[in-house]
Predict the 3D structure of the following.
Amino acid sequence: MNSNTIFALDIGTRSIIGVVAEFVDEKIKIKAQHRLEHASRAMYDGQIHNIPKVAEGVAKVKAALEKKIGHSLHKVAIAAAGRSLKTRRCRVEQEVEDVEIDSDMIRSLEITGLQKAHRELNEELDGRDRFYCVGHTVVSYYLNNYPIANLEGQRGQSIGAEILATFLPDSVVNSLYSVLQRVDLEPISLTLEPIAAIDIAIPEDVRTLNLALVDIGAGTSDIAITSDGSITAYGMVPMAGDEITEAIVENCLVDFKTAENIKRELGKGKDINYVDILGMKNTISCPDVIAVIEPVLDQLADKITAEIIRLNGNKAPKTVFCIGGGSQVPLLDEKIARRLQLPKLRVAVRGRQMLNSVIKVKKDPIDGPDGVTVLGIASVAFKNVGHDFITINVNGKNYRLFNSSQLTVANALALIDYNPRELIARNGKNLTFTLNGEKKQIYGELGTPAQITVNGQPANMQTVIKDKDCVEIIKAVHGADASLTLGELLNSQGFDMEKCRVTVNGVTQKAGYLIQNGDAVTINDTGKVTGEKPEENKQNTAPKAEPHGGFPEKKWISVFVNGEKVQLKGKDNPVFVDIFNFIDFDLNNSKGMIVLKVNGEKAEYTQPLLEGDRIEIYWE
C-alpha cells in the first residue's frame, strides 16, 4: 500500500469492520470494506474475552479485504472502546529559542504533556492499577502564554499546550495487541473510539459549538464533548445495544443471534417472524417489541444523558450526534432529547451520508451510523502516522509500540507478551536426607539470571528505550537439582564401600544408588578408611550440607521479606532472585507488574543481597 492508504479495523463487541481507505485531496475514498459478526460472544462491553475467537474473526476480515484489493495487508490502525476510561487534563510549558516552531517541537511538547498526565494518574491510583494512554487531544496551544490555534511556523520565547489524555487498563490494550499478533498484523495507530468517531463526524470548524457525540455500540456508549473549538471531555457508559438485545432474548425466548435480528427489523416497522428456542414459529409486531425493550431504552437514555451533563459542566449541550449500531433503535434518540430538554431535531442519528470528508459509495453496505467509527480510525491514523508508534527489535523481531510516555524494557516486554518466567532463574532443588540419624543437605546449583542488553550495552528492566532500539534477552538458566549417589556420599565421609555395609531405609543398596529426599542412610563404620582425605564430590561444587558428619560448614545471611525474617541458607553470595526459593510467592500467576525493592529502592533480579536487607515484593 502507498503512504496515502490506511487499513483500519473497528473491533466491536458484536462485529468487526475492516476498511482499506485512500486519502485523496483531504477526502476519504473507500477502496474495500468488509463486515463480519462474531460467531460467538467473544467480547463483552468492548473488552476481548476470547482472544483466539476474535483473532479468527479478524483473520477472516483481513483475508476478505486482501482478496478485494489484490495484495496482502501487514499494518493496521485500531481503536479501543472506552471501558474503564480514565481522563486527565493538564497544561505544560516549554521555553524555546527565538526560532521557527516546527512539527517536531510541537510533538515533543505534546509528549511532555502526556507524560505529565500519566504521572498524575499513577500518583492518584497509588500503584493499584496500570493504565495505558490510548490517545489524546489538544484543548489549546499557547505562545508566550497567549492562546493560539496553531503553533507551527510561529516564533516566541515559550510554547504551551493543554492536553486531554485518555487512559485504559493495560489489559484492554494488551488483548488488542494479542489479537493482532495472532494474525500477523502490525499496529501503526492506536486511538480511543470516541476520538476516532469525533474526528470524522464533527469537523474542527464545527467544534466551536457545544456538541456531544455518542457512539452507541453493542457493549459501550462512548461520549465526546466539544466546545470553543476543542474537544473538552471524553466519557463512557458501560451499557449499550446488548442490553436491549438481552431484553428481547428474555421476553421472546430466543437465542442472542435471533434477538439481534429482531432488533434490526424494528426500523422497518413491519411484523417480525422468528423461531424461538422450542422450535416454534412466532410473529410479533414492532409496537410489541418496543414495549418489551422500552424499560431498557429508558435506563440507557438515563445513563447516557447523565454522563453527557456531567462531562459538559452540569448542563445540556446544544446538539447531540448519535452514531453506532445501537443508535438505530427506535425511540432512543427521542428519549435522549427529552431528558436533555432539547428539540427532537437536535438529537440526530448520523451515518456516512452526512460525512462531507468521505467520497460517497454507490450502494454502500455499511453506510449507516455503525460504519462511521472505522473511517474515523483511518482518519486519525493518516494524520498521526509516524508519531504514535515506535519500532523496537526484541531478539531479532520487530514490534511497534504506542509512544505515549517514557517506555522502559519492562513496559515493552509486557506489551509484546514476553513470558516473564524466562527472565527469572530457578535454583536447583536441594536434597535432604539423614546419615546415621543426622540431617544432611546438599544444595542445588544456582540458576543464571536473564541477561538484558539494549543496543549491545548492559541494561535492566528499568532501562528507557526509544525508537529503533535493539533489545537482546538471554533467557535465564535454571540450576540443576542436587544429585548424590551412595558411593559419592561414602567417599566424601571416608568410607570404603567394599568394606562396610550400607542400607537405605533398611534396604541394602549399591554404590550407584541415587539418594532421594527423605532417605535414611545407615553406614556400618567398620569400613572407615583412616589417614585418607575424603575426596570432594566433583559433580556438586556447591557446599554439601549443614555442618555435621564431616560435611563442609555452610554460611548464610538473614534478610527481611515483606516484614518476615528469611534465612538464605546455602547461598554464599545471594542475589535478589534467590529469594523466591525461600518464600511462597507465585510468579506464574501474574497480578500486574511485579515490584522489587531493597531497603526502599527499586531492585533488579541480579542485585546482591546483604545481611539485614529489607526486601519488598508485590504486584502493582
User: Anything to note?
Assistant: Residues 529-542, 544-554 have pLDDT under 50 and may be disordered. Residues 557-619 form a domain with the Ubiquitin-like (UB roll) fold (CATH 3.10.20.30). The first strand starts at residue 5 and ends at 11.
